[in-house]
Amino acid sequence: MAQRRAARRRVETVASGVAELVPDPDRDTAFTLLLDGAPQSHVDLADPTYLQFEYVRRIAAAIDLAAPPGRPLRALHLGGGALTLPRYLAVTRPGSAQRVVEIDGPLVELVRRELPLPERANIRVRVGDAREAVTGMRDSGYDVVVLDVFAGARTPAHLASVEFIEQVARVLAPDGWLVANIADGPPLRHARAQVATIRAVLPEACLVADAAVLRGRRFGNVVVLAGRTPPPVAELTRRAAGDWFPGRVETDLDRFAAGAAPVPDATAIPSPAPPATLFGNRK
């Protein structure tokens, strides 16, 4: 069995580093995508609704609540990886029109070749920079925008400013939602500044994260749901509490931001690098 899994492992150099597709030892049709040793995506080809990473399940829960069950959505994914969430949405909301923007062309080709997309999935992948792509898109074209872009293990500075969020808000429908993945650790300066930045443009918001991350005890993911109408806090809270690894929904974002100011282009910086030991037990 170990030899068969090793034979299915793929390692290639792509634009953003060394990509590895590692078979899941517990699920015969599943793979984890690593970039330079850091886990980026997990995909089960036989069951795209299986989401292994907890922050991805939190993003999916927010997408689930964006419209009644089964209704197709117009979705824009900034950051592609192994296309986990586009696959999920294609199965849970058939007929959804989805566009993915991923800067790493060789990675896109690797994923398309080794992890084929579901049949009849309306998923278009564009190779390019997320901000440049959004700037050229039409107004109000999407119901959901998922922001999950990492260069290595850090979100680039030009995707962490008010000016960029203004462009994202422009392409969102009036009742649309931005779902953003923010990675940070103690003392959460970047996450607090990003919450302030997003709310300066899309003021109705909440966030979901592990309680230990919110308390500043460890590095992790903060998922922000933001728009122009109140978020579905009660249902999101129920789903977060019922997860394999329960999360907490925070609605008092003035308190969470703790006086942080929105970040303009002139002072934007990348998200902090994760601790060197964070992924050591996942390789």
Q: Which structural category do the helix and sheet elements fall into? A: alpha/beta
Residue stretches low in confidence (pLDDT < 50, at least 5 long) are none
Side by side, the strands of the main sheet go 7-6-5-8-9-11-10-12
Distance between the termini: 18 Å
How many helices?
10
Helical content (DSSP H or I, runs of 4+)? 25-40%
Number of structurally distinct domains? 1
As for the CATH topology, it is Rossmann fold
Portion in strands: 25-35%
- Report the CATH superfamily: Vaccinia Virus protein VP39
- Level-2 CATH architecture: 3-Layer(aba) Sandwich
- The CATH class turns out to be Alpha Beta
Description:
The structure is a single chain. With 283 residues, the protein is of the alpha/beta class. It has one domain: Vaccinia Virus protein VP39 (Rossmann fold). Helices cover 29% and strands 27% of the residues. The protein contains 10 helices and 12 strands. It has helices at 2-8, 54-64, 84-92, 105-114, 130-135, 162-171, 189-199, 211-214, 233-241, 253-257; strands spanning 10-14, 17-23, 30-35, 38-44, 74-78, 97-102, 123-127, 142-147, 172-184, 204-209, 220-227, 248-250. The strands form 2 sheets. Strands 7-6-5-8-9-11-10-12 form an 8-stranded mixed beta sheet, with helices on both faces. It has a 4-stranded antiparallel beta sheet with strand order 1-2-3-4. Helix 2 (54-64) runs parallel beside helix 3. The protein is globular, with a radius of gyration of 18 Å.
